[in-house]
Every structure is written in C-alpha cells, then in structure tokens.
Amino acid sequence: MSSNIRRFVLPLLTSVIALAHLASVAALGQDAIHTPAQLSENSDFHPGQYSGLPYEFGFQATLIDQNLFKFHSLYSGPNSLLSRNENEKSDTYTLYAGVRLRKGVEVYVNPEMARGNGIGEALGLAGYTNGDVIRNPALGMDPYMARYMVRFILAAGHGTEKVAESENQIAGTRPTHRLVFTAGKLAATDIFDLNSYANSTRTQFMNWSLINNGAYDYAADTRGYTNGAALEWVTPKFAVRIGRFAMPLTANGPDLAENISKTYGDQVEIEVHPHFSAKLDSAVVRALAYRNVADMGSYRLTLAMAGPQLPDITRSRQPGRVKYGFGLNMEQALGDGGDTGIFSRIGWNDGATETYAYTEVDRTFCLGAQFSGARWKHRQDKAAIALVQNDLSAAHRDYIAAGGLGFLLGDGRLNYAPERIIEAYWAHQVTRTLAYTLDWQTIANPGYNADRGPLSVLSFRVHLEM
Q: Which of 93, 108, 372, 386 could form a disulfide with 336 if both were Cys (CB 3.0 to 4.6 A apart)?
C-alpha cells in the first residue's frame, strides 16, 4: 500500500467509522451501549445497525510498570541485561476500527502508538519480560499503522454461530463451516499459534515465551507486524491454516521485504478438537510448521570464518538461506465457562541460521494454568501461573560462547544452562473496561548463562479497553 494511501485514506476511514459510532450512540442514547453478555444474547446486533453501517470501533490503552531487582552476575557483555535495580514503564494505545462492506467482506485498520522503555533496553533475555516493548529505540514513539487488512468469509457448509464484538471482529453471525481469506498488514500471530490462556501481553502473561511459541521465528518487523495473506478452512471439529508473510530485510529490522516471492515466511497449522474426558469440553490442539527464507547468517559458517576474531553473524549472511521449525500448542478448559483451564506449548527450530524476527529460542517448552475468579467470588478476575524452559541449538550456543552477538543476546562468554522462567499474575477486573494486574517473573540462567541470575521482575499493569 502506498504511503499516500496510508497517510490519507486510512485515517479518513477511521474518522468515518468514529463519526458513525457517535451518530449511533447519539440516536440511541444509553441503549447503544451493550455489554459482552448482551451481545452474546443478541449477537445479530452490531453498533452501526441503526445507522446502516455494520462496524466495530474500540480502543485499548495499557501501562506496564516493571521493576528489576539487582541479581548475581559474574560478568556482563555488550548485550547483557545489567545487574541493577531498575524501573521502566511502557504504554501502548491502539484504535480498533472496522466495517462490514457487505456480507462476508470486512475491512479493518488499527492505528497504534507504543511508548516507553523496557528493562535493560530489551537485551539479555530470550524470554523477555514485556511483550509491549519495541526492540528498536531508533523507531521513535510516533503513532503508526499497526494493521490495515481485508477479510473475506465464505460459507463452506451449513450452520451459523453467534459472534460478539471484540478486537477486529464485528458482532453478528458467521458460518460454522467457512473459508476465511485475510490479506494486508497484520501480525502472523493474529491467525497462527493462538491460545486462549497465553496470547496477550496486555491482559494475560507478559513474557515473550508465553504470549507466543518462543521457537516460532515468525515473519515480522521490529514492532511485530508484517505484510501478507492467510487462508483458513474452519469447521467445528478442525481447522487448517496456511499463510505467507514478508520477512524483514535485516534481523530485527523495521523494514519489510517487498518481494514476497524471494524473502518470506511460510506457515501451515492444523487444529483439532479431541475429547480427552467425557466430563470436559473438547481440548484444542494446534500443530504448526514454518519455513523462512531470507538473507540470514549461519552460526557454523560464521564460527569457521572468524579465526582469531570475534564471530560476527552478519559476515555469513546469504540471500535465500532457509530456517524451519515446528510447534505444538494445546489448551484444555476445565470449567467456569472456559475461564479455568490448562495450556502447553512445545517448539523446535533447526537453530542453524540466525534468529531473525522474534527471539533467540531454538527449543522451548511451557506449561501453565489459569483460574477463574469465580472460585473466590470475583467472577471477572483471573489468576495464572506458568513454567517455561528455553534452549539453544549446539551451533547457536557455540556462537554465543565464542563472543558472538545476536540481536538480543551476548554476554561476551557463556556458561551454558537452559533459561528457566516462572511467571504468575493476578488480574482484577475493576469495571467492565478497566483491569489491574500484579505480575511476578523469576528467571534462572538469564540469556542461557549459569554465571548470571536468577533474577526477579515485579510488574504492575493497568489495562483499559472499550
């Protein structure tokens, strides 16, 4: 999409949707305000039905305050998380706007702004502690367009289901058997590697290893977005998804490749809903495979080229180099309308080529649980805990131990040990739109280094969504 369209057409569309929303509210008074429960009872309702324009219009703001406490450290390097008492704040703001142009055709735009900093400038950890932090300070803090995308929905069988309004989803009904084609600028993880209990740094776990599969080096720019398209075949019992997205031009880079036929990330995911117990709802199991093609460096080749010098991954970069990996993602509701449940992810990638887009993890395993506040008479509250272990491939490990730097890691040397993480949080829903969260993370062997840590991070989060 050209810069002129981004600058003028998309803001104009957002303004039109906002005016339609205000007109609907003015015409209906308080009747225009519906809670999620009311929407599920009458999900044919959409906020613009009286103004003739089916649309979704929402907003979120999230403030995260994190405190790192000084920890044991025998040494540090250029990309180390420094051992010190440190406090950092980040805040993000996103506008969610969408219109249904006709049945089965929806357009969405998401202007966004991300500000503030993360502890250690987002260095020194594979499982970083704040998913809202932008890893490239040079990008600045000006507003940007996070998403502009179109979604086509085609019925592929009989039956419909109700849909409540949510982020980038217009209230109404949709086919239970459907083909969905999504294209534009978006996040690959809007469609792939979803999990009901561990997917949002703004309302759930904050650690990168929990909001997504750490070994899934999905195509994205520094902010986590990309250009591309995905096709989904969804039924009540299974789903199949395929997608191709643009890779960044450089590792952790802000600019995306324009030629998606030469520099890209492909992924395929199969989702099934097995019944493990007659007393429980069906589980959800997603199996993922991905393959990236980009101008990537090789760890082994870099080490062979280094000689007496420190290895530099950029010296071995070669267009068309391939990185591939796999993931398994499971969730099982245990009651309370699905608000209590368990989840797990397993991830593996070849670890031969440099980490390019997400984080420096080649193997990962996590296991966690979420508990509904109904168990302590606060129905909308949530509490959760999860354990994570991240590992590097042998080649990646040798590169870091020899003094090489990734875009996140590099202590100058390495006494290798798996990075192990525990995160626990309690989220209190103050009102329908406002929630407070207290979060604690402890990380053993930060950056896979047994000579450093363990460390603790205490966080406080405020999330407003309306």
A: 372
Sign for the pseudo-dihedral over CA of 375, 376, 381, 382:
negative
Give Cβ neighbours of residue 465 (< 8 Å, ≥ 6 apart). 58, 59, 60, 433, 435
d(CA 242, CA 260) in angstroms, rounded, equals: 15
The domain locations on the chain are 3-465
Residue 136 predicted with pLDDT over 80: no
d(CA 360, CA 390): 9
- Adjacent-strand bridge partners of 310: none
Question: Is the backbone peptide bond immediately before 78 cis, with ω within 30 degrees of 0?
Answer: no
Q: Rounded to whole angstroms, how far apart are CA atoms 402 and 302?
A: 11
Residue type, 381: D
The tokens describing 261, both together, are 């036929």
Residue 53 identity: L
Q: pLDDT band for position 9 (50/70/90)? A: very low
Q: Tell me if residue 11 falls in helix, strand or coil.
A: helix
For the stretch 161-215, pLDDT in tens is 999 888 999 999 999 999 999 999 999 999 999 999 999 999 999 999 999 999 9
